[in-house]
């Protein structure tokens, strides 16, 4: 049994989604509030001091907050209908690693902090890694405050409801200056470690990736009374766009493109939609490859829109270039573990955002099926324990007297 498992089990009912299955836990919603309270309680029970930064990220301190801190953690929010491990595994492993080190009598020579980043998945406000992007300043605060969730609630309103002043959102050099290095443990999203026969590995790189909102504008009308020749139905170019996404990604080696969300307005079975919003998630090994996929999809969508008498508007909602994790820190982390495999990932992480400003590394825990962002996401208890042991070893090394 892993020390991480009972901690994860304590969260089993929080944000369980009875309609989609799995979990729907989104930034600053009720489930998120419960999770943040839970984390604060667990941290305080360990004698850690918890503070909330200007962007709603939670920090629990072992030692006096200050420069050179060794930071670990992840996020507690999920995609809609997500799994139990993406994010929470890194948070519970951080708590469990503190327990391991304490039981050994380890006293850190540097401050150690456990962090929970806000709205990593962008499941509510659309921008992934919201808390970490605001922290490092790659997301403009003014723009962020105006982001709206599907119910029309702005981020400013949502954070205010949790007691945080939205005016404080934005680049936070003071909080970032405390971070000496960041190590995020995460369930692997893919089968790399399965194929390598290893329970734990370190991350090498993250694909360039972004999100684009493509809105097709047509004419809302009656499904029975409108002759086919008289229609401007935006669902037709939306269908072309979805097929173009697969074609465009297949034309760039290693690229991926996904339309995971398609929203017709008003959304009635007997109604020709007036608009259809399609969100395109595109990723490739580099920025130009990613941009090429998006340009191809946009061109195909525009052509299909014109053929149906519709128009298209496009908005980039987020973008991040390829991340190559700090090679020096990766060597140190891998060395502390006696040598573990290094592997790339197609998934985005707060660690990828922080990597632009501080030395950052990631530990991956084997996922037996590779499935993620779905209720079937899993990690075996023994592998979770291997992750806790590895994280404790890495923290002991990085926060120890000789590092
Ligand atoms: C987050 O997990 C992402 O890769 O979108
Ligand atoms: Mn995720
Ligand atoms: Mn994650």
Q: Helical content, roughly?
A: 25-40%
Q: If helices are DSSP runs of H or I spanning 4 or more residues, what is the number of helices?
A: 13
Q: Which structural class do you get from the secondary structure elements?
A: alpha/beta
Which hetero compounds are present in the coordinates? Answer: glyoxylic acid, manganese (II) ion
What can be said about the biggest beta sheet? 9 strands, mixed
What pattern of helices and strands is seen along the backbone? HHEEEHEHHHHEHEEEHEEEHEEHEHEH
Beta-strand percent range: 15-25%
Outline, from the CA principal axes?
Answer: globular
Describe the overall structure.
By secondary structure, this protein is α/β, with parallel strands linked by helices. It has helices spanning 4-9, 30-45, 88-103, 130-136, 141-145, 155-161, 173-176, 192-196, 235-250, 287-307, 327-336, 350-354, 381-398; strands at residues 49-52, 58-62, 69-75, 112-117, 179-187, 200-206, 208-217, 221-222, 256-265, 271-272, 275-284, 311-320, 323-324, 342-345, 360-365. Helix 3 (88-103) packs across helix 13 (381-398) and helix 9 packs antiparallel against helix 10. The protein is globular. The mean pLDDT is 98. Bound molecules: glyoxylic acid (GLV) and manganese (II) ion (2 copies).
């Amino acid at each position: 049994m892993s020390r991480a498992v009972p901690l994860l089990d304590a969260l089993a009912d929080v944000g369980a989604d009875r309609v989609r299955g799995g979990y729907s836990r989104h930034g600053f919603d009720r489930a998120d509030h419960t999770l943040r309270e839970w984390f604060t309680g667990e941290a305080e029970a360990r004698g850690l001091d918890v503070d909330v930064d200007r962007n709603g990220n939670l920090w629990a301190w072992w030692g006096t907050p200050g420069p050179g801190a060794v930071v670990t953690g992840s996020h507690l929010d999920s995609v809609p209908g997500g799994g139990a491990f993406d994010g929470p595994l890194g948070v519970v492993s951080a708590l469990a690693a503190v327990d391991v080190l304490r039981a050994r009598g380890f006293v850190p020579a540097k401050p150690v902090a456990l962090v929970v980043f806000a709205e990593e998945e962008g499941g509510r406000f659309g921008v992934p890694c919201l808390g970490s992007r605001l922290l490092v300043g790659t997301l403009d605060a003014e723009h962020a405050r105006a982001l709206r969730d599907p119910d029309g609630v702005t981020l400013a309103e949502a954070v205010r409801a949790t007691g945080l002043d939205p005016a404080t959102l934005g680049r936070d050099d003071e909080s970032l200056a405390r971070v000496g290095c960041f190590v995020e443990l995460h369930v692997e999203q893919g089968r790399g470690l399965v194929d390598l026969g290893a329970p734990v590995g370190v991350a090498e790189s993250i694909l360039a990736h972004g999100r684009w909102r493509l809105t097709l504008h047509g004419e809302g009308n009656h499904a029975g009374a409108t002759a086919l020749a008289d229609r401007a139905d935006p669902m037709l170019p939306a269908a072309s766009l979805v097929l173009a996404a697969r074609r465009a990604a297949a034309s760039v080696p290693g690229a991926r493109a996904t339309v995971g969300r398609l929203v017709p307005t008003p959304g009635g079975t007997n109604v020709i939609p007036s608009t259809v919003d399609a969100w395109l998630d595109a990723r490739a090994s580099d920025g130009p490859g990613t941009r090429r996929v998006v340009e191809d999809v946009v061109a195909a969508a525009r052509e299909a829109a014109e053929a149906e008498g519709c128009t298209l508007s496009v908005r980039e909602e987020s973008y991040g270039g390829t991340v190559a994790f700090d090679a020096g820190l990766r060597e140190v982390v891998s060395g502390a573990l006696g040598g573990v495999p290094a592997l790339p990932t197609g998934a985005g992480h707060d660690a990828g955002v922080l990597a632009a400003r501080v030395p950052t590394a990631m530990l991956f825990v084997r996922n037996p099926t590779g499935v993620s962002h779905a209720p079937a996401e899993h990690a075996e208890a023994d592998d979770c324990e291997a992750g806790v042991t590895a994280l404790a070893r890495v923290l002991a090394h990085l926060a120890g007297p000789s590092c």
